[in-house]
Amino acid sequence: MIRAVKVKPKLYLESFGKRACTMGYLRQGLEVWSWPVKILSDLKVQVWINKTLETIQLDQ
To answer: Is the distance from CB of 32 to CB of 43 less than 8 angstroms?
Structure first.
């Protein structure tokens, strides 16, 4: 089941383990770290709607 939820651009997200983490705000972009190296910076997330070429920016 897919559920539509209003996105909060100022929402802080994080997911972490012993040596790696993903963190940041939707509008500013996410960072991915694997200690002591920053792997990604300013990661932006988009969603594709099934059977279309339209994308949705999650920071809107």
So the answer is: yes
| Residue 5 half-sphere exposure toward CB, CA atoms < 13 A | 9
The model's pTM: 0.57
Give per-residue pLDDT as tens, 10-46: 778 888 999 999 988 877 888 999 988 999 888 777 6
Could you tell me how far CA 59 lies from the centroid of its own chain? 9
User: Helix (H) and strand (E) counts for the chain?
Assistant: 0, 6
* Contact (CB, 8 A) for 35 and 18: no
Give the residue with greater pLDDT, 50 vs 32: 32
C-alpha 13/C-alpha 19 separation (Å) is 17
DSSP state of 27: T
